[in-house]
Every structure is written in structure tokens, then in C-alpha cells.
Amino acid sequence: MAKISAPKGTRDFYPDEMRRRRYLEDVWRRVSLRAGFEEVDGPIFESLELYIQKAGEEIVTQLYNFEDKGGRPIAIRPEFTQSLARMVVARQAALPRPIKWFNISRCCRYERAQKGRLREFFQWNCDILGAEGPAADAECIAVAIDALQEFGLTKEQVEVRLSSRKLLSVMLAKLGLSDAAIPKVYLVLDKRGKVPADVIHHMINEIEMTEDQRKRVVDIMDMSSLDGLPSFFGDDPEVLEQLRELSQVVSLLGDDAAQFVRIDFGIVRGLAYYTGPVWEVFDKTGTLRSLCGGGRYDNLIAASGGKAMPACGFGAGDVTMGLLLDSLHAWPNDLTPRADFYVSCVQAASVSKVLPLVRRLRSLGRSAIHDLISSNIARQIKNADAMGVRYNVVIGSHKCSDDEVILGNMRTHEERTIRIQDLLKSVQDGTI
Ligand code: HAM
Q1: Which residues have CB under 8 Å from 393's CB, separation 6+?
Q2: Which ligand 1 atom sits closest to the C-alpha of 125?
Q3: pLDDT of 162-213, one tens digit each?
């Protein structure tokens, strides 16, 4: 029979890959919990309606959707945010505020599979609902930076590019851009860095606006700090208000975390629900697509049938983060499995003693493995060595009595005969 390959844009997780995935997830979980986020989850598939309600988004064209056997239109989740909104709305009155939830989910998007973008990936989400001030935006950015630092990444290697949808829309309106032109400008901004510069140039030229407006749009696109804005817009109160809000997000982060942040009006976020500050994390060499993206989405809960509720959050993917750690050789060294004990057996007559000892070691909370394929003792010791085992415990040696074993330290190569009872006691005391 022909071999069947995994579907395009998916990955198999053999033990090596699985260990790396677990490491990413462990960091995400640890960072979330210590910031007071609680873990939640929803189903891997939802009613198609949940996503198409907000039609017009790129994500709708990327859905994996089908009819189930009962004829219901279903979609596999492309992100967690819509499920989160549905879950919040279902119990909105009862949930204590602010809601701080995190989630690690498997998501599927029918995207063009390319470096950093697959059709199935894992995404870490942190969201805060019920808090409207910039403190919640700053908290989300701080948590994302915590994770970056926990992965050993520095401000020289990664950056948070911060913008504000509201500030941008106020600025574009002040420039006198038509309602039809503004979403097109967003689209160009969102594509910047993802498509070649000449395509961007062409896209800008296609938008209906005056030459002066076009020049100003390009100037805004190129700004890397908020300092230049007042000279652009004078003391326009609406611009100043939004500017103040965005500056506050940065100042609330404090000097240390703020060093990771750069203002970039090129960040608009492809998803339609964002309303305020928006941000993405990139590696500084600029070779990878975004590591993380998020922002404020104050209208989504009401749009999902709930009472209006401010919200902000972010999602970070495993694919680009994995590629970045690969390129920086930044995976921890100790991801390879290490068992504490390998219980080996010299003679067939003692085989029945192996598993009981293994089980007792395991019951003391230590990892213990043994031979399952009748290898000779030399092969067993070789296997133990290859698996990075710390202690080899030999049962059935002619040097031992019935209640004794040989304990070999695989690092120092020291060996001693020890009573099984004493071995277990030392393991329990933590001296072995
Ligand atoms: P997003 O920008 O679509 O935002 O995705 C967030 C992150 O998920 C990206 O930065 C990337 O690391 C990863 N990602 C997205 N699509 C793919 C893909 N096809 N392959 C690999 N990785 C991918 C959202 O999903 C928002 N729901 C995030 C959010 C949560 N906003 C507020 N709360």
C-alpha cells in the first residue's frame, strides 16, 4: 500500500520535537500562572457562525470548515479569541472582574504554508477582560516580554512593535482621508514587511488620495517614536488624547520592559476586532514573521451578544518561536530525557526482581527504567549510558547476596554494593 504523508502544513511531533513543544508550553504556562492568569479551554471546533459573524476578515477565508454528520456547519478553531468571547458572554454576570485568562490551543488555518506559517500550530493566549485603562494593555505586553526573557531572549534579539488603531484612525481622519480610503491604508500597513516594498508602493498609489495625503501617510508609516506627532497634528485634542493613552502604555511598563518596545504605525493587525493599542513581537533580524500579536478589542464582547466589556490580550505561536530558538541555538541543553535509575539484571533467574524494584523507585517519585528486550548485561549498561541515566542498579550479580544490588554512578563510574532496603531509604532521604 502507498505510504500516506501528513497533510501539508502540519507537523509530526516525534519525541525530540515533542520535548521542545512541551518546553514552550511549560514556559507559557509558568509565565501566565505567575502573572495571575487562570487557564481555560474550549472545543477544538466551533459553529462556523462564530467566525463568519464578523465577515470580511482574512481569517474567514482561512477556515477549515465542514458539515458534521448532523448537517451542522462547523469550523476548526483558527484562533482562541472568538471562543473566549463566547465563553465570557455565556457567564458574563457571574465572572469576577477583571477576568484574566490564558489558554494554549491547537489552531488550524488554511494558510499558504511557508516559513513560520503552517496550517496547524499551537498558540498561547493571554486576555484581560473588564479593565479599560492602559494598565491592562501594559500588563499584557509585560507578560509577553516575561515569556521572551524566560526563553533567554534579549532586547537586542526581539522587539515589541506598538501602535494604536484608534490613534491611527484619528490621524488618518484628520488628514482628510475618505472612509473608503482608511481601510485600504490599514491593509497596506498590515502587509508592510510581509510583501516586497514595490508591492507596497503600488498598493499605496492605488488608494484614492491627494499627493499631500499620500506623503503624510508614508511619513506616519515610517515613524518610530511618538515625538514627531505633535509637529504633524499641532495640539489637536483628539490626537493628543490617543497619543497620551499610547504613551501611558509604554510608561507603565517601566524602563526595563519599555526597552523592548518600539512605536511602529505599520502595526495594524489583520483581525478586524482591534480597537485601541495593538502590538506585535518580531525578531530583530526581521527574517521571521511575527512571534506574537495582540491588542485591545473593546467591542468584541458586545458584538458577540454580551454587555459591552473592555478587553485586551495577545496570542503567541509556537512555530516562529521555535524557529527563532533554533537560529539562536537557544533551546535549553537539558531537554534530553534523563532517567535517574536503570535497573539491569545479570541473570535470568533474577528477572522477576527487576520490575518490583523499578516500581518502588518510581513510587518514591524517581524515574526508573529497565530492559524489555532480554539484552545482555553489557548491552543494558550501554543503553543506560546512552539514555543519560545517573545510576545503574545491577540485580543478580554473583558479588551480591539476595537482598543486595550493585549501585553504579554512571558519571563518576564508582560502584558499591548496597542493600536494597538502604538504597530505597537513601532515595527517600534524597541522599541518592
Ligand atoms: P494572530 O496575529 O492572528 O492573532 O496570531 C498570533 C500569533 O499566532 C502570531 O503572531 C503567530 O505567532 C501565530 N500564528 C498565527 N497564524 C499562524 C500560522 N498559520 N502558523 C503559525 N503560527 C501562526 C490572533 O490569533 C489573536 N486572536 C490574538 C489575540 C488574543 N488577540 C487578543 N487576544
Answers
A1: 341, 342, 343, 344, 357, 405, 406, 407, 408, 423
A2: 30
A3: 999 999 989 998 999 988 888 889 888 888 777 888 998 899 999 999 999 9
